[in-house]
Amino acid sequence: MAQIPTVRLLILSLLAACGGGGSDEPGNPSQFSLSLSDAPVDNAQKVCIAIAGLRLNDDSGTEQASWSVLDLLPTDNQDGCLPSGYTLPTSSNGAPRFLYLDLLHYQQGDSFALLSNTPLAAGSYGQLRLQIEDGRSNTLDGAGRPHPSSYVVDANGNTLPLEVPSSELKLHGFTAPANGVARFQLEFNLRHAMVLPGHGNYYKLKPNGVSLLEVGTLATLQGDISQGLCADDLTKAGVYLYPARQGSALAYLGLNAPSSDGGPVLTTRVQAATDSTPAHYQLDYVTAGQYDLQLVCNAAEDAVLDSGSSDFIPLLGSSQLGITVDPTLSNPQQLDFIAAPAP
Length: 343
What we know:
Layout: H1 12-18, E1 30-39, E2 44-57, E3 63-67, E4 99-102, E5 112-120, E6 123-132, E7 151-154, E8 159-163, E9 168-176, E10 181-189, H2 190-193, E11 194-195, E12 203-205, E13 210-214, E14 218-224, H3 229-232, E15 238-243, E16 266-269, E17 280-287, E18 289-296, E19 316-325, E20 333-334
Parallel strand pairs: 1-10, 8-12, 14-20
Antiparallel strand pairs: 1-5, 2-3, 2-4, 2-6, 2-7, 6-9, 7-8, 10-13, 11-12, 14-17, 15-16, 15-18, 18-19
């Protein structure tokens, strides 16, 4: 069982002076929950992150609350990330320096709770910071070859360090309501966030592929895909979710383009048909809004590049345009692809 969080909060009058991160109702805290999840990623067997702690800052960057490794809910058996012959390094107080989490365990609607209904002073918080060790400069304890703390096992079984700039991810903040619930999800969309530079020595985790989402506003999109689409070949296909074009001339682009320039908000690969199920897809943790949903026949050729530029052009196989996502009306929302786009 996790220890009671040792949350460090500044005096409420100081919080009011700095304009955020506190409350004038100290007896009415919010209940804060935070989970982690991942959208499916290509070409990886493990993506193990070494989580060293969590912080909340006010709008000026001053720390208002923090949780150490011992305050966070632990994974079972370090989520299978601790290799044989190695041990977790410890801090000066003898506590483990981090806890392990394999992001690939938390896909297709599954998630892992780091905090659950933890009391938090009501008020506005400017930034959430998740501390993750940079695997290039941090290693496990053991007598063998140095092993990175945060790492990726690729499709060929090679272990490479995972770069996390400054050893933390910086996300936007939120408001914790008095006598209310603040439930959030950290979504690691690794198809958008993880890149292998040209040198091939380590993977990079790009912060713009990680989102802090309010759980109550999230929906799941799912659907079946007719086998005859994409010229009867769905092996390379994916489903891309774009902001609704609503008649604009903005092109549909790939993973390297930000959504404001034509890139997708979320993507997933098509799951192959079996004897009992048709080909299908699932997009989790979609925020409410207006979208265009596209079946992309050549999605397997799309990848995030370290240069940030790509000549990838999606080959569209079918479309669902101008859809409205509202989890209060329908969740999950069924959207099938049954016909090729009009010429």
